[in-house]
Amino acid sequence: MVTTTPDISPAADPAPAKPPTIKRAYPGALVVVEGIDGSGKSTQLYLLKRWLEIGGYRTHFTEWNSSPLVKSATRRGKQRRLLTPTTFSLLHAADFADRCERQIMPLLHGGYLVLADRYIYTAFARDGARGCSPHWLRNLYSFAPAPDITFYFRAPLDVAVNRILAGRPKLKYYEAGMDLGISLDRSESFRIFQERILNNYDQMVETDHFVLMDGTVRVNKLQKLMRQIVGEKISLQQFAPKKK
Amino acid sequence: MKRSNKKVLAAVPANGRPANNKSKKAAANGTPPSRFYGTPLPGVKPEELSGTLVVIEGTDGSGRSTQIYLLTEWLESQGFAVQTMGLRRSYLVGEDIDALLAENAVTPMTLALMYSTDFFDQLERRILPALRSGLVVLADRYIFTLIARAAVRGIGRDYLHGIYEIALRPDLTFWLNVRPEVAFDREFKKSQTISYWESGRDMSLSNDLFQSFIRYQSMIKREFEYLSKRHGFLELDGESSVSKVNQVLRKRIASHLGIRSTQYKPSHALSHLWR
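ok -> structure tokens follow
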């Protein structure tokens, strides 16, 4: 698993920078997983993280909607169902900005391999499905650094939805997209909402250079592929433990 | 420090934005097509909004709140129902922003987005319903303060305008312009101290509080000068007396709403504001 292919990080090897490659102002790297609920992305990212951790790499894991900053507001908004598509979107953007400015950016500048479970594409797909304008959303998140790899885990709608419905006793109001008024039946609403999100994801595959991953492939086989792609696209030795 | 600026008081309609100059009759029901800057908020039908949105902008110490108290009373005496809005008053995140400001560990982008959440929560849950019911909304600050504050902290103006392009365009925007030195005097008199944020102390401009306040407010003022041109503010001399400023405000609002008489004297309850 030696890297020979285009090196995205300028710190490692400044020589062969291909034209379309985005210039990074930092030595770190960012790997992102995206996909609808039940697509298997979190499992795969967890396994990737374990692989890197066990190998002693400088890595950090971050997930969508996890900062304490907006927890109380999100809870308040969700409990009392106060959120509109716009405030829902802005609150998540504020939360992401906090994580970006205080965690992701410093880590990238400090030379970490940052793993993100969901990234700005979640907002594009989900808030877009809620009716926010794509143009407005793109601007809103334009401060976010572009990922080095975006894995898009794609499972057929039924497979993904059934995985979620089987494991969860009750879908939450916003999670099921009940605020959209699509259907009074939560499972039905969830299915239609997820379908819209899936369509939005599909439209970004080309424009945002997603690496498409088949979520129906066996877990260990898929993980092997994921590790291989990471090894090809990122020069892992720069995150490896220093030899004495 | 009190320089009397006699002639400047005339409300200056800046650039030719659709400021509804002489829409004496059209006011309450005629809805101009461009009620939003860009794409409207999801789910909003602009034609439903029959009310009027009046914005009063200006730094702390420019007399905004005083004028809003007085205008509310005057409008109510004329039979108009009034709704107000201001920064950090949303149910959703108002308190959270207070906590963030107190903690003082928040970064500029996050703070800007929390403020925009606060703004849109109020806009969607308070202002739009009021405008649908035909009320007059008096906004104690609006997107312009939010844009100016974030812009001086290094966030792109185009980015900020992009966030607020889904906001409602005010019918009238007044800017109570005061020099930073005057704002300092008034603020100090009022609270015997100068707030951390109003003096931009997070920006490390100066260790001297007075200098920091003046430099920060001057930066904000420059942003407002730019915004005033871009959005066609009605600029007023905020250093004039309360009654004079109020008179100009009443005139412009009366002409917009089709109110014939602009005579007004504050009730006993508000007479202490009439300086």
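Confidence is low (pLDDT under 50) at residues 1-33 of chain B.
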